[in-house]
Write a structure and sequence with these properties.
The complex is a heterodimer of chains A (about 80) and B (about 725). Chain A has about 80 residues and is α+β, with helices and mostly antiparallel strands. Chain A is about 15% helix and about 40% strand. The longest helix of chain A is centred in the middle third of the chain and has 9 residues. By secondary structure, chain B is of the alpha/beta class. Helices cover about 65% and strands about 5% of the residues of chain B. The relative contact order of chain B is 0.07. Classes of the chains: A alpha+beta (about 80), B alpha/beta (about 725). At the A-B interface, α1 and β5 of A face α3, α11, α12, α15 and β10 of B.
């Protein structure tokens, strides 16, 4: 069990949010979309140029840029 | 929206007995479908004061009684970060609708309840429309509606808005609640001991000191203070005394949370809210079977695939483009024929003179110019609505974001660039309107400003004229070069704008990728109609006025009496129809040369000489401000070819004439091509930019900025080419 940023996850991997390390507009937006500690998520895929990333959480799909994913610390659950 | 509405929240809803229902909900939760199902065609679109957020209102009927329905902007939350959120919140607080219906996507319950909980914290009378229960069932979810209602303490009505199922029942429950005129009863959630205590303390201070916040629960304001809500804090700051008592509490609890939890109040509050929601969904939601990968995910695997994704995207864009032009060809021709016929009829009915010229060249051509676009715009909006409603639009942004971000644009900018003529053909007007899907205001402005660089349909007649005259053997090459040039310039200009005038960090991209859905015909028709009508209404009036101004510039003053007499005697001497026509054409050319526009054209040669443009070209470019296709017809007049070239079909004699004119070379033609591509957007586009940005500053900027770039580029082409010995 290791804590990494969301950017480092590979498609197919699942993880649980540990912490969101940013405030302000981005922090609030991430929270509004349900990215709070304890939320399980799964990486669905990445856009052709490896950025942005698509994840599934709380039963829906969300996309965010890698530099935004950097602020989301997750605990990896299992390898794909 | 600098002044908060919170301070004036006493102004209660001036209901005249008619119930007002406000629809709130997440984007993609089916709020629009519900609104359409409730109101049918009885709806209209307006604007919230001072902002470009659409305000949709409509009338529903319950037992024959009219019910006023307001469709609030779709939001994920009620914080004051986005314009939509501010508008939705201020409407609820300021206008106090009798009841709010929160449209909740049943298949996505947790995140949707986040907004519901915030509405409950505000205390507004609330009914939950649990929408898309069919989709939830397909995904193996079973929701105990009664339990959910009991736990939340608000009525919950299951619906499928797309089919209309449960919609009347939802309306009935909402109206019944509204008629009881319940007090606002804010929901108290525990946010943990530290925050609860701070909230109580802040609420105590607020309660004692501010009668003007009367209708809003002090607890809610206290909560917003701790969340660092800009709008609320701003309204507090107007009271120095109050602020000085609130600040210490805010600071204390902030520092305390930092040291104990290494977190800020804002995120702790969000955690507790989601905790509250999880506790409820655990009891009311049963996952009967796990659907590991639903239909939408399977489609996405293909459509966002590294290789297939971009190819499919290109295919879609090309398809849209082909469809729009194929479908609008016939109606556009009908409009053209009609206005041609009308112009002819008026021409026949009236004697030659100013009135006839005003009606035919000013009014009919002007109105025809606006309406002629309508079928094109309508089909473009239809295509956009299909992409939006099906969920593909979000995927386009996802696929393109990385590339466009380099230039300070947003994934969604690609739609506008294509609609504006990215593959050649298209129109900047719907393209500018399509930027509304862009949530980042700076990126949106940058997109609006570079869209006019694209090769819209009205520029094509000019291209085909010049290409057929000077590049007859390399048509495809030149067209391709022009497309490349327009994209390169648009992207570079965007980059430049984003690092100068439109500087500022990029706002978050964080975006939902909604499940793929089949759009409903009703939804598509309503979307398309709304936007098309808006174009006709807004552009039509101003465009007519400006067309008249351009007409006047190109009509006054007429020929001197001397010249009139000269042409009259020439005409009297001339033999045969051919030479009569020739003289009439020469007269028209002389007339144009004498007008304000003609004089302007001559005066401008000082500046345009280095580009290789003569006065005739200049007049045509001035006329092109009204609409780019006017360039060809004006050149026709200026080169004494009469109105023959007007319709663009008969450009051959003009091409021939240009070839034979001594001033024209392939190089000067290419400089003109580049200039026409880039210089000031047409009036219709400028008016649309004004409408979308809310100020005349940006259309004016766009005029000057684009013309300057056009000048520099044409200068580079012409002088550079000459230096290389190409001229």
């Amino acid at each position: 069990m290791s804590v990494v940023t969301l950017r480092e996850l590979k498609p197919g991997q699942t993880a649980v949010v540990v912490k969101v390390t940013t405030g302000g507009e981005l922090g609030r937006r991430l929270r509004d979309m349900g990215l709070v500690p304890g939320t399980p998520l799964k990486v669905i895929g990445r856009a052709p140029l490896k950025d942005p990333v698509e994840i599934k959480l709380r039963g829906y799909n969300l996309t965010l840029r890698n530099n935004e994913a950097d602020h989301i610390m997750v605990e990896v659950e299992q390898a794909s | 929206m600098s002044r908060s509405h919170i301070a004036v929240a006493q102004a209660s809803n001036p209901s005249h007995g008619q119930v007002t229902v406000a629809l709130a909900g997440n984007p993609n939760a089916g709020k629009t479908s519900l609104f359409n199902a409730l109101t049918g065609a009885r709806q209209h679109v307006g604007n919230y004061p001072g902002v470009t957020v659409d305000k949709k209102e409509g009338e529903a009927r319950l037992d024959g009684q009219p019910i006023n329905v307001v469709d609030l902007p779709g939001t994920y939350s009620l914080t004051a970060y986005s314009l939509e959120e501010v508008v939705a919140r201020n409407f609820v607080i300021g206008q106090r609708p009798d009841v709010v219906v929160d449209v909740v996507d049943a298949s996505n319950l947790e995140r949707n309840l986040y907004l519901a909980v915030q509405l409950m914290e505000l205390g507004v009378p609330l009914v939950i429309g649990l929408n898309m229960v069919d989709v939830a069932e397909q995904r193996g979810m079973k929701i105990d509606t009664a339990k959910l209602s009991e736990l939340l303490g608000v009525p919950v009505v299951p619906t499928v808005a797309r089919t209309g199922q449960g919609v009347q029942e939802l309306l009935r429950v909402a109206v019944e609640l509204a008629r009881q005129k319940p007090d606002w009863r804010p929901l108290d959630i525990s946010y943990g001991a530290d925050l609860d205590q701070a909230i109580a303390e802040l609420a105590g201070i607020l309660e004692g000191s501010t009668p003007r916040h009367g209708l809003i629960a002090a607890r809610w304001l206290a909560l917003k203070c701790l969340e660092g809500d800009h709008e609320v804090l701003e309204s507090m700051r107007q009271d120095q005394n109050l602020t000085s008592r609130l600040e210490p509490v805010r600071q204390r609890v902030g520092e305390h949370l930092k040291s104990t939890l290494d977190d800020d109040p804002e995120s702790v509050i969000a955690d507790y809210r989601y905790g509250f929601i999880s506790a409820i969904t655990r009891q009311a939601l049963v996952l009967e079977r796990e659907v590991r990968m639903d239909f939408s995910d399977k489609v996405d695997r293909v459509l966002t695939n590294r290789l297939i994704g971009p190819l499919f995207l290109l295919g879609v864009l090309y398809g849209v483009y082909q469809f729009v032009f194929w479908a609008s060809r016939a109606p556009v021709a009908w409009f053209e024929t009609f206005f041609g016929w009308l112009g002819g009829a008026v021409e026949a009915a009236l004697p030659e003179g100013l009135l006839r010229s005003l009606l035919v060249s000013g009014v009919i051509d002007g109105v025809g110019g606006v309406l002629g676009f309508v079928p094109l715009i309508m089909f473009m909006f239809l295509a956009i609505a299909v992409m939006e409603d099906s969920g593909y639009m979000a995927r386009m942004a996802y696929l393109m974001d990385r590339v466009l971000r380099v230039f300070g644009l947003h994934g969604n900018s690609v739609i506008s660039l294509i609609v504006g003529g990215g593959i050649s053909g298209g129109c900047a007007v719907p393209a500018v309107m399509a930027t509304r899907t862009l949530k980042d205001p700076q990126a949106r402005l940058a997109t609006i400003l570079v869209v006019p660089f694209m090769n819209c349909g009205a520029k094509l007649p000019v291209y085909s004229l010049l290409i057929s005259a000077f590049f007859a053997h390399r048509q495809a090459d030149v067209m391709f070069a022009l497309t490349i040039i327009s994209w390169t310039l648009a992207l570079l200009a965007a980059r430049l704008l984003r690092s100068s005038l439109l500087k500022g960090r990029q706002s978050p991209f964080v975006m939902e990728l909604p499940p793929y859905r089949t759009p409903t015909l009703k939804g598509l028709l309503i979307h398309t109609w709304e936007r098309t009508w808006e174009y006709v209404k807004r552009a039509g009036t101003i465009l007519l006025a400006v067309s008249l101004v351009v007409w006047a510039l190109m009509s006054f003053p007429g020929l001197s009496e001397q010249d009139e007499a000269r042409f009259a005697s020439l005409a009297a001497q001339a033999q045969g129809e051919e030479s009569q026509k020739e003289i009439a054409n020469q007269k028209a050319s002389a007339e144009l040369g004498g007008t304000v526009a003609g004089r302007l054209g001559r005066a401008l040669t000082v500046v345009t000489d280095p580009l290789g443009f003569d006065w005739r070209t200049n007049v045509a470019l001035v006329g092109g401000l009204a609409a780019k296709e006017v360039i060809v017809s004006t050149m026709g007049t200026a080169y004494s070819l009469g109105q023959a070239a007007k319709k663009g079909v008969d450009a051959e004699p003009l091409a021939k004439r240009l070839q034979d004119s001594p001033g024209w070379t392939p190089l000067s033609a290419f400089a003109l091509l580049v200039f026409v591509m880039i210089y000031s957007p047409c009036i219709a586009t400028l008016v649309t930019i004004r409408r979308e940005t809310g100020t005349w500053r940006w259309p004016l900027f766009s005029m000057v900025h684009n013309t300057l770039i056009a000048y520099l580029m044409a200068l580079l082409v012409y002088q550079g080419g000459r230096a290389l010995g190409l001229g």
